[in-house]
Amino acid sequence: MVDVTALGARVASGAVAPLVRRLFVRDGPGAGLVDRPVRISALVSFRGEKRSVTPADVDRIAGELVRRALAATGPGERPVDAGEAAAVKDALSRTLARLGEIAVEDYEAVGLGPERFARELRTGVPLASYGLGEDGLLLYERLLHTASLHILNFLTQRSTYVARQQTVQTQQLARLVQAVDVLLERLPSQSAEDAGFEERYADHIAARYGTLTIYGLDAGIREWPLDTAYLSLEATRPQVGRDAASRAVAAEQVLAGHDQVFLRGVAGSGKTTLVQWLAVTASSRVYDHGLPHLIGRVPFVLPMRRIVRPGAELPLPGDFLRAVGAPVAGEQPPGWAERVLRARRGVLLVDGIDEIADSRRTAVRRWLRELVRAFPGNLWLVTSRPSAVPEDWLAAEGFSELVLAPMGRDDVATFVRRWHRAAEVPESVGESLLASVRGASELNRLATNPLMCGILCALYRDRRGFLPQDRKSLYEAALTMLLERRDRERDVYGFDGVHLAYATQVQLLQKLAWWLIRNSRLEMDRGEALGIVSRARPALDLDGVGDEQVYRTLLLRSGLLREPAEGRVDFLHRTFQDYLGARLATQEMDFDLLVNHADADQWEDVILLALAQARPKEAEHMLRRLSGLGTARGTLLAAAGLRYAAEVEPEVRRRVEKALATHIPPIGFDEARELARATGDLVLTLLPGPEEVSHPVAATVVSAAVEVGSEAALQFLTRYRDHPGKDTQTILAASWRHFDRAQYAQEILAHLPRHRPVDAYTLDDLRALRALGGWEHIVVRGAYRVEDLVELIVPERLTRLSLEAPHPVEGLTWLSAFPRLEAVSVFTEPDETWAAQLPDGVLLQYPAHSPSHDRRG
Asked: Which of left, alpha, beta for 707 (phi over 0: left; psi -120 to 50: alpha)?
């Protein structure tokens, strides 16, 4: 038998290339440079108005590829029989037809290479339905790879592609020339000794700061490459009452607009990682990174906890390397650091003002002021946790203040995927964690910075995917790391001479949390916090330590508290406040107080976390009382609490389940709406999955989740996106305006049949649909411009268009731009001339009333 893996290669290029070229339109005469990439679906010859090849021809092209491959074998060598050859042809034809559907642009496709491009084409092609055996599948894969290779080769030979790539290369060369000019300007004449040392010093920076250590994670990796770990976050200006989005800047660009920056960020927000990244980038000999302000610079990384020593003076430039323990310090030429700074080539990265004693900060500010004045023109970045020093602490020295922003949804996804790749954990584990984070509100609230995301990744792997089911263990592990192990492993053994034991910190924090919960407050005055600390001190054996010292230690070292404004304090993560408050409530046996607040949304997590920490009899008492309230919320809290209670008597469990049966699943759309409004995210943990319900019930379940409208609700809806029920699909297609548009498009719409009607209210809606490769039935709601519709609606996709505008656009001749359009609905007064303007075969409708695709119930 022939080796099937080599069979595709036996088809000569002269035979394949002409077949591949038939799949694409030719460049017209005088084809010129375009200013943006070309979507491959716009180049195929079997779609659009000017078809030179029909879809049936694609099938014949696939058949010819199979025939020629088999013809290249010798007598008796054929690996597949006629029946399987036909199945290979059908599968290959459907895959090649994907060229008219994918959203990949020409330069992106070439960048993927033939293997990855072939995988892109295979996406969405159900090979199982073709019944291919092992040899048939191998033949299909080899022919697809061969075709992909020739497709990419064809794309690179198109005149517009060549012209554009030449422009791209020209722009890259121009940036390199600019970088060289900057470098020559910034590099003065150097002695051979200085130049040689700078090369060795750059190697030292790359080796020392080119990896990132993750502290306190038994289950996690200890170090990973910085280029893998670094995540570009945003920094914003701390101005109250103004639009933060307009002031956001990529964190690595903070020194592009300001020579001197004071950057605040909460524990684990990525301050030290940013310092490392800037140091490695500045010292690298790669100049096409888009950061010209770092070219030719010399970084000095100055972690405060290393260079501020009791009784010692702060270092002068010549002592910087020795102060941080750099092994190359002894090789440093005399006066080299001063020469670098006088040439305005330094990048001074002062990390962790919060990690030194308060008594030394005045001296540090004076040290910074003297260095800035003595060596002007260098770049400075100073970092600190938010509450360590007052606002505008370095303003008089000319520093601009910025704040690191929390991670967004995409940042979390990027971090989780990189973490699992670096840890050599299967990709499926990371995707499962992401689903858990997005589907559980408490995890979603935790995943706001790299530190907490790292904790979630490591704990999720350690517990083999059972993280969301054991919130108590999650919080205990996170508290252990934040309150004890992180500072110990970073050599921070106390603050201002105060070291608080782990148990002491937990007791104090839970007293602060329970006070906030009982008083329905999200923050407290600083004086109120000091009063709670003062009352707790006698029982915690804190003699000799002042209230202020204890409070400042908790604030600056725990990673859980912050001062959002002068004289105010709150918990950085609300979920930790709820956990710690529930912890104290169970210790104080305040179970009736908890149940009496079951109708308050803000007490929901507190009650559930108290059930997780209560002893069995205490938990049963709460469950009986909750289910006996006779309200939907009380019943659902009790049902959700069954998952948290460690041990429940069968009789109590049956009582809760019986009460639950009257509410879940909802029997109609009205009930679904009322249930969702009464319970919020809580209902999502109790709604059944798609495999458990009939088609009518699936629609009401989806309607309830849509009514919730949260991030967790969107994640829940992903479970129903493949549900075959017509009503379920219609509701999903019509519900994206209740969620983030781009996110919903990727998570839900991309998986739905394209003939379901989708409303478009804005140009961003149309862009989102275009990014999916187009949609068949679009309802345009509101005023529109014809040129926008023609530009943003994929013409090869559209079969039905509904236009609902307060002021109709005159004429319909522009609809000829959509070759597959079958019907258009116009929700306005009819114009007798419009029917004559329609393309042949397009039905014009004048519905009596505006349609409503909002099926929320």
From this structure: alpha
Distance CA 40, CA 192 (A): 53
Number of other residues whose CB lies within 10 A of the CB of residue 482: 24
Does the reported pTM lie above 0.70? Answer: no
pLDDT at 492 over 70: no
- The answer to whether the beta carbons of residues 786 and 763 sit under 8 Å apart is no
Q: Give the amino acid at 244.
A: A
Nearest Cα to Cα of residue 305 among 555, 560, 486, 561: 486
Cα angle for residues 670, 672, 674 (degrees, 5° grid): 70
Average pLDDT, the chain: 77
pLDDT in tens, 231-258: 777 788 765 433 333 356 778 888 887 8
Contacts with 835 (C-beta within 8 Å, 6 or more apart), sequence order: 844
Is residue 577 within 8 A of residue 571, CB to CB? The reply is: yes
Do residues 743 and 709 lie in contact, with contact meaning Cβ atoms separated by under 8 Å? no
**More confident site: 639 or 497:** 639
Q: At what angle do helices 616-627 and 632-641 cross, to 10 degrees?
A: 160
76-131: pLDDT as tens digits = 556 778 888 888 888 888 888 877 767 666 666 777 777 778 887 887 677 777 77
Question: In whole angstroms, what is the distance from residue 631 CA to residue 618 CA?
Answer: 21
Lowest mean pLDDT among 241-245, 264-268, 516-520: 241-245
Beta strands across the sheet bearing 400-404: 249-250, 234-236, 400-404, 260-264, 379-384, 346-351, 298-303
C-beta separation of 242 from 231 below 8 A: no
What distance in Å separates the CA atoms of residue 141 and residue 124, rounded to the nearest whole number? 15
Where on the phi/psi map is residue 800: left (φ > 0), alpha (ψ -120 to 50), or beta?
beta
Q: d(Cα 79, Cα 190) in Å, to the nearest integer? A: 69
Interatomic CA distance for residues 747 and 757, integer angstroms: 17
Convert the pLDDT of each residue in 456-476 to its tens digit: 887 777 666 666 445 677 778
Residue 515: its H or E element: helix 502-518
**Which token pair is 489?**
């492993």
